[in-house]
Amino acid sequence: MQVAFVVLLVFAAAILAPMLHRLLGRRTGWWLALIPTTIFLYYLSRITEFQAGGSIRYSLEWVPSLGLDFSFHVDGLSYLFVLLVSGIGAAVLVFGGGYLQGHPLQGRFYSYLLLFMGSMLGLVMADNLLLLFIFWEMTSVSSYLLIGFNHQDDEARRAAWQALLITGAGGLVLLAGILLLGGITGSFSFIQLLEQAEIVRQSPLYLPILLLVLGGVVTKSAQVPFHFWLPGAMSAPTPVSAYLHSATMVKAGIFLLARLNPVLGGTAEWHYLVTLMGAVTMLVGALMALPQTDLKRFLAYSTVSALGTIVLLLGLSTTLATKAAIIFLLVHSLYKATLFMVAGAVDHETGTRDVLSLGGLVRVMPITSAAAGLAALSMSGFPPLLGFISKELLYEAKIQTPDLSPLLLGIGVLANMVNVAVAVKVGIRPFWGRPGRACCEAHEAPLSLWLGPMVFAVTGLLFGLFPDLATPLLEPAVSAVKAENVDFTLKLWHGINPVFLLSVATVLGGVVLFRLRDHIRRLGNDLRRFSGLNPSRLYDRGLQSLMALARWQTRLIQHGFLRQYILLLVMIFGGLLLFSLLQMQEGSIRWNLSGIHLLDIALAVVILLATLTVTRTRSRMTAVVALGVVGFGIALIQVIYSAPDLAITQILVEMLAVILFVFLFYKMPRFSDLSSPGRKLRDALIALACGGIVTVLVLKAVALQIEEPVSSYYAQNSVLEAYGRNVVNVILVDFRALDTLGEILVLSLAALGVVALLKLKQKSESSS
Amino acid sequence: METVLAFITGILFAGGIYLLLRRSMSKVILGLLLVGHAVNLLIFTAAGLVRSRSPLIPPGSERLSPPYPDPLAQALILTAIVIGFGILAFALVLAYRTFAVTGTDDVDELQESAP
Fold first, then answer.
1. If A304 and its partner were Cys, which of A91, A214, A285, A645 is the partner (CB 3.0–4.6 Å)?
2. Could you report the predicted ipTM of this complex, rounded to two decimals?
3. pLDDT exceeding 90 applies to what percent of chain A?
4. CATH, domain B2-51+69-108, list 1.25.10, 1.10.10, 1.10.287, 2.40.50
5. What's the CATH class of domain A562-720?
6. Model confidence band, residue A279 (pLDDT cutoffs 50, 70, 90)
7. Which residues make Cβ contacts (< 8 Å) with residue A19, sequence separation at least 6?
């Protein structure tokens, strides 16, 4: 029960947040942070349960016919994510409260942020994959709202739209994959999927499923070539970036990959696809991070690189690699959240995020500087921080991959060197370097802006010094990803071995990269000129062509020419009718010519001639008269074939119609010859074809009797139940009286319309 | 007779569709009326033709005795005739007003002059 309750609680808070903000004012962030803090502490208190391999389940039927249930399953992996989402979420709420203080839409900001948090919590706890998909899309939508929060800014709107389109499209692809999975196993429950993992891997649909699921992961977790939305998403307020990069959104793809590892993982396809995808992303992210100058841009590209690293490790899917992936996930969340918030605090206090003009901030912002320094050291993998342990494990996992080892190690070392350089540029130089232009008028950030970063930075240090503190969190997660019990012992110091030497080389290389930063930036600027084919441009071009396509097809289909619409309708329905007539075997057409009276023939000839006259005449009066002849001819048919009521009505209506026509046609222009002879011929042919089809339809209908006519009921009961002898009238005013009421209503409305249109005439004429 | 009526229905349909495809609004309305006639006749014929037996229950009898014409089809057509007249009246006045305001009864020209 508590599981669903947690999600509901956060969503309820999201709805109430704007009101609370009005009531509580400046301190709202602190109060709202109590909710994720409570969730965090509640789950932390159950740590021994999870360490023992326990899990929480909760299920409530929603739409059983679709296999969709509110079923949740919190295992070790979910547990780690829940702690990250709620813990970092609490810090972000507090930070956002300080960062956006006085912003007119702050209440709305809290609301979006909580919605984001709730969606992410739901995502990581969902057992039913369809439910997971729903939360997955909710994170896309809420991140759209957050990225576009400064909605008056063009760039923010564009970035939000881009993120939504890319992750939304990926979501649809993922849904297709989930549906295929459900089709194979007959259930959308992850727990049941796990039991049938072997069947899934043997299935001929395995590769399509894998590709579709990866489609979702690639877009959500910003893997190459869909990485560009993530740096764009920096238009979001900094607290959002901190959350989006560390615990939510981009980590959703990672979560799904880890979640489905026991089902889809372990095959050659998985190994090569996922690993190479991660490796490329790691490399591209690292290379693109180097030439930046904006604090947040550095961090955004380094997130791309880090996400690539985790994906790569999950692709290797050895126990060691999985351990490395999970611990790196934790490390990255901690230092990335810290560094983003630090960047936000620096921006807030100095008004700039440009590294070129920042320096020497340690004198005015000592606490922020300390947090930044610790996070930067963790990011570069210095002992005794958790980042060091993580990096050692990472190298070890790569060394132990037989077929890809040299490639992965090469890219990995390079990416980590860049990490070191970025860490120095973002976390060290602005604070400890030479005082820059924007420095000495700044003040230390308020408590709300440094508390979160400080807590995370210190956590990174504590976990590094006492790795045993971290293992209870990591062990259940790794066990869940591997679907078996994994022992996890972490040590800070492994002695001098190849891995350690690689670490040393990495740090040295990183420092060299940092020294060469000006050259690299120049090189980067030179290269940018040749980047005509980058995915971001392709995205823009694709979007433009999509819009052009939409305009083109609208012009083509919705052109506004009435006759073309009618032509299309007539041809489609004529075609459909013909098709079904040809399909129909029953009921052969009888050419029953016996019993035809002379009067019938005479009537038919008259109607035929009158119809021809209506269509051919150039005179309006002739047309009206001929139309009257058609109407009276039909009335006569009704007289002959036992429909006196119809005949009476028809004659009355026909008289009124002729009068109306005469009155109004008199004021309308004469008929003129507007269409070309070719068009007329074409229209005539189409019309005749449709007429022919209808003739066949009538003949067929006469020959067929599929059901006993319902009218026998009326024939039997007209007198007995309704006390009327004219059965047609009894049907109209008694059996189907409501229909007749509707008819009266329609006529009244038409009459009102006529009166209104005619009155309008007088008014406009008198005023003109 | 069904065969003859089937052909009349087809001819009315053809004439109606041809007129619906004209550019003059007046002709489109004439076409509307012809198609209306055609549909009524279609239902009338398809329900089965019975000569000289009204759907009236004679005094002293409690029910219609077969063969009788289908009263339900007749009720439907009666409704259709009346509604068709309502539509016709409205369409005619609307076309007239459109002409009075725009000065044309050519539907193509109306589209081209639309904003």
1. A285
2. 0.94
3. 49
4. 1.10.287
5. mainly alpha
6. very high
7. A107
